[in-house]
Amino acid sequence: MEVKSLLERFYSGNYRYYIALPAVLFFVFAFLAFVNPGLEQGIDLKGGTLVVVSTKSMVNAQDIASAINSKFDLTELSVIPFQGGVQVQYGSNRVLASAKSDIEKAKGLVESNQAQSLAICKKAVSSLSAYAKPEKQSFASASECLAFAGQFYSEASDAFKEELNSTIFSSIGEKNIQEGSTRETQISPALGRLFWSQAQVILLIALVAVIIVIFAFFRAVVPSMAVILAATFDILAALGLMAVFRISFSIASMSSLLMLVGYSVDTDIMLTTRLLKRKFKTVRESAADSMLTGLTMTGTTLGALVVMLIFSSLWNLDVLFSIAAVLLFGLLGDLVSTWFMNAPVLMLYAERKRRRVK
Amino acid sequence: MAELLKSWRIWVLFTVILIAVGIVAFNGLKFGIDFKGGTLFQIHLAQKVPSMEPVIQVIESRLNWSGLKDVRIYGAENEFVFVIVPETSAEDVKRIESLIRKQGRFEVMIDGNVMLTGKSIISVDQQTNIAAFQRLGDGSYVWRLPFTLSIDAAERFRNLAFHKCQLVNVEKSDYDCALTYFFIDRPTGGILVMSGQRYDEDKSIFLAGTDRIPRDTSIKEVLLNAGTPYFIVDKNGLTSEQLSRLKGLLAERKTAIVQAELPDAVREQLKSIGYKIKSVKSTDLQQPGMQKTPWVYKATGLKSIVRLQPGVTGNKPYAERPEDAKIITDLFITSHESSYEAAKAERNETKIILNSGSLPVAVESISHFWTSPTQGKEFLTKAALIGLLVLITVSMIIFLRYKHLKLSMAIIFTSLVEAFVTLSFTSGLGQSIDLAAIAGIIAAVGTGVDDQIVITDELLKGEEEEHVSLLRRAKRAFFIVIASAATTLATMIPIILFGYVMVKLVGFAIAITIGVLVGVLVTRPAYGEIARYILGEY
User: How, if at all, do strands B113-117 and B106-110 pair?
Assistant: First the structure.
């Protein structure tokens, strides 16, 4: 079989150098997820804004969404038309959000580093000027700039809301709008705090439970740690790529991350069992065998996900799209973690163990 | 085939399929709000309560009174309430939100004292000869809602109202009587902030009187009965004396009710010392040609101001002691809206609130996640179509890998059975099928396909490992299957046990757990048998 000989060749050389790839990627993904660009939190965790406009006839959601997207950079925009109106929901405005965090950062620096604080504050003011014209642009000191920036921020955010409303109105068409029927509500993030505290408890218990289960099945430290490390890597890969493709961390993406754990351990457990429990084949042969099985497993899942991605983006099924995307990212990570990290580690471990037995 | 039918594993599979078909045939599938349309409300209470029971009861009774069906309510952490209302229109959402948002504390005040509360009321909207609605000259509507007091409350009312009239003109038998103030959700934990101009304007509206406000009402007395400290600001914002007084009040009062027309700087000042801001517009009831409503009226939750009658206060006929005065049990609450529809909605809402009683604490915030019913249906169709396409893709990949028609069909058939049984059991166990549950089922079936590939590959090793029987190899495959099922369960069970706030995640975890159990106990053993049969060891 041609594929098989190809796979056998994969582990014929000095496979231990393969570990360099996941090692480097580990830091890259961590950087992407937590430093730059960093994960965005979804509406269910951070709150957001909901605008409801009553209309005389049904409107086209696509038109409104693309009109908004061409003008503003909003997180988690969703436009839902209904009989008699349309609902526009979004998490936050990226420009305003980053300006706000800059102002906070500058506030924190005002005591320790005047010059840097002023520079950050100026940057925030200039990015806010996308929505309103600042009265001042040069500042003598950081505290002067901050005093102005605080006020200017609320000015800019009011101006943004007005501009957003007029964009929505003009894409609906003035004639179609029921007069005096626009309603704006803030979605409260109160639950976010509780969600986090629960999520932490769950993650901790789940982690301990997974470790116990894996140890119970393999009764050895190295293979168990390898499986857990691989699952961690996959989640990190998913988080990193989520940050890059701006998929928010929400309850929906949390569920796909947990799903990922299941898929991730599937291949790892298969690999570990085959390498450690099959004694009449060389370790390298077993690894190549396992790779064929493992690639079929991941391949079917990837195929399913690609189909889901294509059609959910075609049909605007946001939730399904983000679930599929997160899983796809994680499984791409799983290819690396299983075959470049887990396999070499286990092969070294198995070869050493067999030598000792002999 | 006869050999295959001897295996108990196959019979377990058949039995389980039959049960699953039975559940769907008799109960149908219970779809959640993602597919049926509906709204999830997340309510955050202003503070923790010792028990969620009364909160849930009040909300439940309010929603029942408003005629909504199949509502699910549950509380969490003593400060959150979740309400799931299926099949809601955008109008419903608005109405429900306004119903839940109100704490519903009804109070009648006199001289700064509480005369009556919601607990004093024994029935609402009983048959009376009072007209429920009345059109006024300016096109606006007055509504009236009669209610009956308990005897105890009526006595208290009589005692507090006793001799609250003064004879001002003996010849005309003209009395000057005290005013009573009817509030819903009087802001006892708040302070008021308004402009000087607003205060003066309100003062003159109260003095002049309108259709709903008796003449010569004093704004000071209104504010005394509201029990809410007030602050008047000029263009320069709050003064330093005002700020220090505000800081002192912060121990008992956390919310600043601010006139919306005031500049943002005032709100920023209040926020910076720790107040929560509630903006109230003063223009809502002031459409052209209509009588003005004072801002204070709206900001304090005042519903009506009623002047006592000498007949009620024991002034005429003159009663020596309170016990001799007349007892009144039937009163009405009245208010005023700009249109008939608004008046009707407001009256109905007040009725529901008086009937259901008040929440033990105020509501801090409500957020809702809404799916329109048409969108939900469309969603379901599209999701099903995607499912079909996924199935075709996976089948193709499996066929390309094994190039064995019967084996590929067995894998697909087993997965379909697993999906159907999981769907049916999940719904049968009371978990509504929404997007999260579907995701869970897909995930479970996906790992199921993975497991079947493992089983198949173990069995196919025939060429190299002829000395190991297919049975032994199947057993080895099951070690992998069970180990991976156990890890999946280890991640899902904590969610079911501890994740009750994350409604959607719990649905997801329950579906996966059922799917994994169905897989390990039923479909995978059966697939092992089928695959062994196809690969020819019988």
Answer: antiparallel
